[in-house]
Every structure is written in structure tokens, then in C-alpha cells.
Design goal:
- About 70% of the residues lie in helices and about 0% in strands.
- The chain has helices at about 5-15, 20-30, 40-50, 55-80, 90-105, 110-125, 130-140, 145-175, 210-220, 225-245, 250-284, and strands at about 205-210, 250.
- A two-stranded parallel ribbon has the order 1-2.
- About 35% of the residues are buried.
């Protein structure tokens, strides 16, 4: 049975093949938030790496997502291999914080929170207080973090305190901490990769660009050439706005149609002027 994450992976690959990069980026983010398996996560990472090539605005938005996917995949592999607690990895944590900062700058606070929740839960499951402490230090370097990120910083502090307290209890009793020895006030770790799927409007254009509509209408009306010139101006402006909008606006086809009609109208004006000048002597 195909899962939601698998469907997003397939749709993202299809959008990339169609060169619909804004839609592909939205589908990759939706797949990341839909609790993908390791295989799906690897496929999302491969798609995102291809998407991050180039100098477009979509490629710039895809680069921090690559770091986030790599960090999530690395964390999963560490847990699956039951690796013993190790010293914090500065490079990995720097990449993680860079991904979080990129999501916040892009207005994707939900994805930033999900990434942090996964990292905190996995480090807490390993009882890796050193890793959490290093993460806490880097979170403190974020300038003006939103309330959701600030609450995760406080949660890291709670997890570190709980782990240290459990270690002391284990040392005093000569064994591993039992259920009774664990502080009851300790916060529960957030379940891994459990997050609500993004609302449907993330995958569709929210509105049609008004200048694209105006360009198409003016290209049809013509108005003795004035409409054609305005159709060209509005069409090029609308096309640029839609391309830079990351899939938030529709009407690209209307803008292109308005541009084509505008050039046809301008060509008609030029042809009319040439014929008029050619026939002017015979009229005289």
C-alpha cells in the first residue's frame, strides 16, 4: 500500500522531470513532513540535490533543505545502528542549525520545529547529554527565535537535566535507573517524525496573478496598438512575479499568451506603418 510520503516522493520526481521546480520543492517539503521511510528520505534527498543546482530562487531555497534531509537521514542511521553515545559532531550540528535558520527565513517554521523535535527525541533516546548540550549552545546563537524555537531550547535544558539526574541515580543505586527512579516531572519526548501534514493549499497556487489576466485581455482587445504594448509590459512583469513566487501564484500561461498577442499586435502596427508609407506617394 502506497503511503502519503511515497506519493509525495513520486509526485516530486515527476514534477522535477517536468521542470516544474516550484511544485517539486513544495512536494519535497510535504514528503519530509509526512514521516518518510529511510528509502523515501534518500529519494527525497536525491531529488532535492538536483533541485538545488543553479542560481534560481527555488535552488536557493532547496539548499538548506538538502542539509536538513542529510541531517535527518544521518540521525536515523545512528539510531538504527544502536551507536553508543559519542562526542557531539560540530559539523553536523552546524548543518542542522543552518537548515533550521533557512526554514525560518523562508517562513517554514513547522519544518524547522519538526527537524529540532526529531533531533532532540533521538538524542534523548540515546541519553546523549553532551550532544544535547552542544545543540543547546547553537540554538542560543539564533537571533530573535520565534516562540516555538524558544520552547525547544527550554526542552533541551529539561532533557539534559533529566539525563544527568538519571545518571546520578544510576550511580548511587549501582544499576540502571528504574521507572520509579525516573523523575515524574520530566517532559515526554515528542514521538519521532509525528507531525501534521501540511494543508492542501501548500501544493496548489493560492491565486492567479492579476497582471497576467490584464496582459491577456489587453492583448486580445488591441486598442489601436496601445493594448498590445500594455500587454507586453504587464505580461513580462507578471511572468517575473510568478517565477519568483515559488508556486504561490498562478497565471503563467496567461502571461505568456498576453506576451505573444502583444508581439503580434506590435508586428501588425509595424506592418501597417510600412504599407502606409509605401502607398503614400500614390495617394499624393
Amino acid at each position: 500500500m502506497t503511503t502519503v510520503a511515497q506519493k509525495h516522493v513520486t509526485d516530486a520526481r515527476d514534477a522535477l522531470d517536468r521542470r516544474d521546480h516550484p511544485q517539486c520543492l513544495l512536494l519535497v517539503r510535504a514528503g519530509f513532513a509526512a514521516s518518510p521511510s529511510n528509502e523515501d528520505l534518500e529519494e527525497l534527498l536525491a531529488v532535492t540535490r538536483e533541485l538545488s543546482q543553479g542560481r534560481s530562487s527555488v535552488a536557493a531555497q532547496a539548499r538548506p533543505l538538502v542539509a536538513g534531509l542529510e541531517g535527518a537521514l544521518r540521525s536515523r542511521r545512528q539510531v538504527a545502528e544502536a551507536a553508543p553515545p559519542t562526542l557531539p559532531q560540530p559539523e553536523y550540528l552546524d548543518e542542522l542549525i543552518a537548515a533550521v535558520r533557512g526554514y525560518l527565513d523562508d517562513g517554514r517554521e513547522t519544518l524547522a520545529v519538526t527537524l529540532l523535535d526529531d533531533e532532540i527525541a533521538e538524542a534523548a533516546a540515546r541519553r546523549d547529554a553532551d550532544h544535547l548540550s552542544a545543540l543547546r549552545q547553537r540554538l542560543g546563537g539564533l537571533a530573535n527565535p520565534p516562540e516555538a524555537i524558544a520552547s525547544r531550547t527550554a526542552r533541551v535544558d529539561d532533557e539534559v537535566e533529566r539525563i544527568r539526574w538519571a545518571e546520578k541515580r544510576a550511580g548511587s543505586t549501582g544499576g540502571a535507573p528504574t521507572a520509579e527512579s525516573t523523575p515524574r516531572a520530566a517532559p515526554k519526548a515528542t514521538p519521532r517524525h509525528v507531525t501534521p501534514s501540511p494543508p492542501p493549499h501548500r501544493y496548489e497556487s493560492e491565486s492567479t496573478n492579476g497582471l497576467a489576466i490584464a496582459s491577456l485581455v489587453l492583448g486580445i482587445v488591441w486598442i489601436y496598438g496601445l493594448g498590445s504594448i500594455l500587454a507586453l509590459v504587464f505580461g513580462y512583469i507578471a511572468k517575473g512575479q510568478i517565477d519568483d513566487g515559488g508556486g504561490r501564484q498562478g497565471g503563467r500561461g496567461m502571461a505568456i499568451a498576453g506576451i505573444v498577442l502583444g508581439w503580434i499586435g506590435v508586428a501588425g502596427i509595424v506592418l501597417f506603418l510600412i504599407l502606409g508609407l509605401a502607398l503614400l506617394p500614390s495617394w499624393g
